[in-house]
## 1
Amino acid sequence: MDAAESAFRLLCTGPEPLAVDCARIGHKLPRRRVPLVELRDVLLDRATTEAAREAVWRQLVIAAQTSDPAWVLGAVGVALPGLRKAAGELATGYTGDVEDIDAEILAGFTTRLKEIDPDAGSLGPRLVWAAQRAGAKLRAAEWDYAARTVPRWESFEPRQPDQGHPELVLAEAVREGVLTEAEASLIADTRLDDIHLYEAAEKLGDSYFRVLRAREKAEAALISWLGAERPPKKSKSVCKKSA
């Protein structure tokens, strides 16, 4: 992400910096072409309205999808504060290389940037959320792999996933046998992504109502599992720590 920041700043310097004509956008933004590095600060300002943020992000998305590839990096640079926050949350307690999480977050962001509907609304949060999901998938896979590959004769108490990241919760539910991988994928696609249920049904080659019932059954099992009391741990030290 430091490399992305450096490249972003290079694009915003010189005689022709990457900039947005805010005079055409309105919403009390500066009535001139504003370099993206300056525009990022404007968007972070509490005085800036949500309507202004949404209008700017719409311009960034359209430019990234239709103009020079530099605009993709420009959009990444504007979103970096949110992306860094997401990366920091996912890196807490992560036993792998945190740069892998950064890479997945950036890849998830750029992939979603190229396909999102500019009129979808809440573009900034949607893009950051897609990036966070990509990083969470990597962390969930690493955590699940570690839980599966520790030898039986070693004492191993897997860390509980961060309840703030739905992908990790779904991965734990699959590991515990509460959900199948297909059920977890259906919930993630239709609840966390922008995939409509009818699109999921077409992808699965099944009827809308059969897929709807399958999701309802899976979600009922998930809710029951999340609300159930967990059996106490055998280790007293772990019990004290949990308490």
## 2
Amino acid sequence: MTTWEVVFVVLAGVFAGGINTVVGSGTLVTFPVLLAVGFPPVTANVSNSLGLVPGSLSGAWGYRRELDGQGPRVKRLLPASILGGVVGAVLLITLPEDAFAAIVPVLISIALVLVIAQPWLNRKLAERERHEHGGVALWVGVFLAGIYGGYFGAAQGVLVMGLMGVLMSEHIQRMNALKNVLTAFVNLVAGVLFIFIADVAWDAVLALAVGSVIGGQLGAKVGRRLPPTALRAVIVLVGAVAIVQILTR
């Protein structure tokens, strides 16, 4: 990458790190940016997953107060996320690259619908009677979300928040803290596998890691004050650009 491309990727990482901490759709920013600077789709996705791991961990640390007392939930749900992340990563590597190029526009479209529908979903969730821990249904749902996250990951956090909101009774900020931990480990286990079995663009990984760590801290500190509508509008715009880029490559 050129110097300006590195700066561009770092800034995308900052934005994505903040979005992932607050909403959970940062891949819809960084993936198109990596495509724009010339990386092939699968390499961009693999490098993106690795590069955003430090940002996810940074966001989880920023929400550490909201994690207080949630140790039993983490122990219960983390194996589902890890197992799902491994399955998703293996699918990414074993399926043909043409399959990825065909599937990802559909996945991005689903992710964009989830991002747009999140306010409506949150209102509906507030009306439901939910369980304290979510039970087997939440474990299975987190496992399936982990497969999605290991394969691609855009709006993985939105999926996890939706599942927890439907199946578990808890304050939204505490659910968000738990979401940050689960999605961080999905990206982490997928990223570790990618190091050994996939082509990784390490310059992109480093640039994203630097930016996403900064963004994770900013998201934890000031993200709740940002206008959600503006964030969603940017995510939808960037996601639409990504779909066009993939379809026209």
## 3
Amino acid sequence: MAEEVEDRAKRVFGDHYEKAAAFAALLTEHGVERGLIGPREVDRLWERHLLNSAVIAELLPEGSRVVDVGSGAGLPGLPLAIARPDLDLTLLEPMVRRVAWLTECVEALGLDVTVLRGRAEEGPVRDRLSGSDVVTARAVAPLDRLAGWCLPLLRPGGRLVALKGESAEEELTRDAEAVRRAGGVRPRVITCGGDVLELPTTVVLVERDDQASGRDGSRRRRKDR
């Protein structure tokens, strides 16, 4: 890794940089062969994936209950868990082989993170994860579907933080009505990490309607794990 990128990574991860480097090493060694990242991604792992994911930590309040939907290779969930050990984080992933990968990483890195197999739209998953403060998602689905899956997991006033690319504004315009129907309010596009990334992370931020009520809107205590 170039010295300049390493310096930026240390700024983002601070005292937890070594764990971030260990996760990068795991992805470098196993990511391509296990179908988690493409071959061309290895050389830009820090800038495009780890830092791109970790910088959204600035949007997450202290001690938040966070669900990373469709966690896949562990992005953005694992960089967030490393950078912010105060978070109560669940990695939600439907594919068995990726659940195995996430479990291996959590154990190898010594993280206090829950790995759950399932889909956000499934009843048992909603029952278990409802009332969360934040739901994150990266390269999972178009915004209309993402809102329908993720907003029911949030408490009223909770945030969907969807990492998007250049199409963010276009998606938000196209899917604004679907987001509203799903209970989303105050949708907007923002960027994170402008001080450490050459290309800041583009995020669509949607809040769950404050008027949402019912059992899936109740706040749960941090569970003992």
## 4
Amino acid sequence: MSSSSPTSQDPLGHALLAYQRGKQNATITVHSNVAEEEPLPAAYFFRSLWEMPELERTALTECRGRVLDLGAGAGCHSLELQSRGFEVKAVDISPGAVQVMQERGVGQVACHDIYDPALTKEKYDTVLMLMNGIGLAGTLEGLERFLQHAHQLLAPGGQILATSSDISYLYEDEDGALVFDLNGPYYGEVEYTMQYEEEAGATFHWIFADPSLLQDCAEAAGYQVEFLDEDDQQQYLVRLTLKG
């Protein structure tokens, strides 16, 4: 799920492989610089269509043409799209995740960084970025870079379907006022480390973009912006379509 280069450290992949091999309680521990550590059951990456949040189900119905599933995890979205007849390429930075997807029957799978030149050799009608997938861009600067880079991934009229969240609520005081350093980094930039059993991965950056920020960045990068849905957790689904 990180956008950095693959390494031998792969706690996410090893947890997914353990679950795939029958370890039903395999759990990743997620450490961040903004919240208490959280358990993330590997089972979540194997959810069926009706176990998915409504935002994800909506995103799947909005897919069209050839699909590139970025940060595909264990392939739950790719498998659902394949079952509907879509041609899908699933990409993840985690070698273990890629192995799991191959074993589960995802037809086209690759272990790539989101900027890997190999990805730009083909064009896609839909780039899918679910599970707060816009976060793959890492930082505000990274988001601007990715939105420009995605021009090389999209076919004419192509779309990005992505989810993200406004996490300003983490910075509310007891009176509901927002308290964060206006001179510091953007409040939606988070540092994460994943751990599975005794194996800890490298720290990586993840961005949660509030809707107005994403709209500004996307319009500056030449996209039309359409917010398709939101939930009560301040998470939203957005469609970014290349103009022209």
